[in-house]
Amino acid sequence: MPAPRRHGGHHHHRSFTSPAAASGSDGSHTVLLGLFVLTMVFVNVYFFVVFRTPVNAGGAGQLPIDGEPGHRDALHNGRVDRHLGVNEPSHKKPVIPPRNNFTPEQPPAENPVQRIKPEGFVGGPAVPGDDYGLSVLAGRMTSADHDFCSQRTHVCPRGQVHIAAGSGKDLAYVCVGGRAAIKATGEANRGLNVLTMNEDSGRVTAIRHFDTYSEPETDFVDFIDSVNLGRLVVIVTLDDGAYQFKSEGRRAAHAIGSSQVDSFNFRGTWVVIGQKGLSVATKYEAVSPSENYKWGADTTVNECVPLNGNFAAHQTVTKEQFCATYEGYSDLCSHDLPALVPAPPGEPQAAVSFPIALVAGNRPQYLLRSLASVLALPGVNPDMITVFMDGVNPEPMALCNVFGVRAVAHMKTKSTSTMAKTFQNADMIAAHYFMTLRRVFELFPRSKYALIVEEDLEVSPDFLSYFSHTMPLMEMDPTVLCVSAWNDNGYKHVSQDPSMLYRTDFFPGLGWMLSRALWNEIMPKWPPCCYGWSWDLWLREDSQRKGRQCIMPDVSRTFHFGRRGLNVDNDHFYNAYFANHNFNTDPNAVLQPITELLPSNYDAEIARLLQKATPLSHEPGATPCKDNYVPSGVSGNVYTIWYKQKDSKDDKNLAAICSCFKMWDLGVRGTYKGVLRFFSKGNHILAVGSQSEFARLHMPSAIQPLALRPD
């Protein structure tokens, strides 16, 4: 048969048909049309079943995350995750999909959502048959994966979704509403496996993997920073994810409400379900630290998680729930403590913007008293308060939730020292303090100062105004090492003036203000474990102090009430050295001008006092231990006691004087250039060492300095 002739473009096109076709009836055309329609139906059904990509208002092929225009949950460093099904501009480099070790997908024989949701399942998306977006984001899951998750799922109340999450050496998984979202094994999935969810609908918005064993934490931090506020975030770990997971990664974890991430160490396991921007600790977290480089135990979280924007509200433990669970809180449980009532706003003051680090162990009754006093401060911002715990302790964690404050748990410190227990305790305290001081400045990167309080300290009502008043001195005077709220010699019978401030060569601690500049200076030199170093004794050494002084009050702004602890372990010691301390209770106490504390002005004031002072008896046999050594019946006078020294550091005779006046005598504290200031019977006393620069200028020639202890 001759070939068909081709006609020019301007002629009508005529299809070539065989003679049989050409002679066929209209019925043959109907058959062809029917075959064409059936073919198209088959193609559409195939693509729907295999790819299961829903079509939303935004058009076919778009990721049905929330139906929100311009949704950015899949963004990472300005890019869009290709594996999430989002069109990416051609000039951007595609993001490599996660290296998930999933079993290749098998075409499902039935709707897996209908198969795995337990009977009576409620909560989550209201759309019938919705699978939380997992058909797109975790489309390579198999029926076996879903069966694995269905065994870990139970019915949740309406408005909640069940999440089962687990971490371990060989397996990490996340199940959402009974569907498998993450099931990770093998080296390709080592590290952190992360899932984000819409906080209202429960739909999964992103699934990411970060190998924080072999790669820096940067990508993880950038991803968490880019996640929308309010999003739910689930993190599970496989194999090791802590080796390259440093401070910035842990800061990002705190941003979703993690309180236990600091206990996550090399070869440990960690699971958390949090929320971006959560200001309190999430309830849904578990960690199993490694000990001696052994693998941590598998950890799981299996919970009904509230949706519809109610996640944050469910993290707070009510007072009623706490009191029903724990014993020993009659004051809290019988009536509202002042801290449970909003504190008065107070006058604007600088210290309100300072972070407050509350250093805690596992003494929840102590923590209650301390935290209540801090939260009762006028103008205090609870968001600036963080409780740093040595180890994961459920009871104090729950207590923090009652008060709605952030809690951060460090890995419980253990000393490997073979020295006595006292030195081992010093190692543990030093390590806990190091992690606390480091973390508080990481959590508040713009803060120049932080206030450090311990769980066995009650703070005075003018605590914030005290530090607001003294902070400018640290700005103007480089010779100020710190400001402390504590006076070791501030007992009721030897302190009386709430307005008076002292300079001291001693670091008092027990409620103090630390500058970021000082922390940056001492952090690289912090005493290492495990040599029995006490961190505060180390800070008092000349090599750290470098001639600088601290500021302290005559009347303390903290009260040490802890009768039991690593350093205080019996009532006799507590009663002798802490119980009788004076404590300011006046919220409106007026402090002396800070310019009077500048070195030249302060030295001039001491010189003025010495010139007008009356020496007490220095006759042979005279002793301050006699009750009549300081005259009775008169007040407002200034007296001096000159004590003998071999050199400027010799303080054994001053220690004897402190014993006579029933002050701190376990090593002299609170002196400034050999001068100790205190009150007795309403009179101001200055005890001055014979080798002090003030003695060389102002000690009367006829005075024989007191020598109460033999050389």
Keywords summarizing the entry:
alpha+beta; disordered N terminus; elongated; glycosyltransferase; manganese; eight-stranded mixed beta sheet; 711 residues; five-stranded antiparallel beta sheet; Spore Coat Polysaccharide Biosynthesis Protein SpsA, Chain A; 21 helices
Give structural notes.
This protein has 711 residues and is an alpha+beta fold. The chain has 4 domains: 25-64, no CATH class; 103-314, no CATH class; 316-460 and 504-538 and 560-577, Spore Coat Polysaccharide Biosynthesis Protein SpsA, Chain A, CATH 3.90.550; 601-698, 2,3-Dihydroxybiphenyl 1,2-Dioxygenase, domain 1 (Roll). It has an 8-stranded mixed β-sheet with strand order 14-13-12-15-19-17-20-18, with helices on both faces. Helix 6 (218-226) packs parallel to helix 7. It is elongated and about 100 Å long. The protein starts with 18 loop residues before the first helix and ends in a 13-residue tail after the last helix. The relative contact order is 0.06. Residues 1-33 and 45-130 have low confidence and may be disordered.
User: What is the overall shape?
Assistant: elongated
Count the domains. 4
The number of helices is 21
Output the strand order for the largest sheet: 14-13-12-15-19-17-20-18
In this structure, how is the largest beta sheet organized? 8 strands, mixed
Which range best describes the helical content: under 10%, 10-25%, 25-40%, 40-55%, 55-70% or over 70%? 25-40%
Strand content: 15-25%
Low-confidence parts, pLDDT < 50 over ≥5 residues? 1-33, 45-130
| Average residue-wise pLDDT | 80
Total number of strands: 25
Span from first to last CA?
A: 134 Å
Radius of gyration: 35 Å
Structural class label? alpha+beta
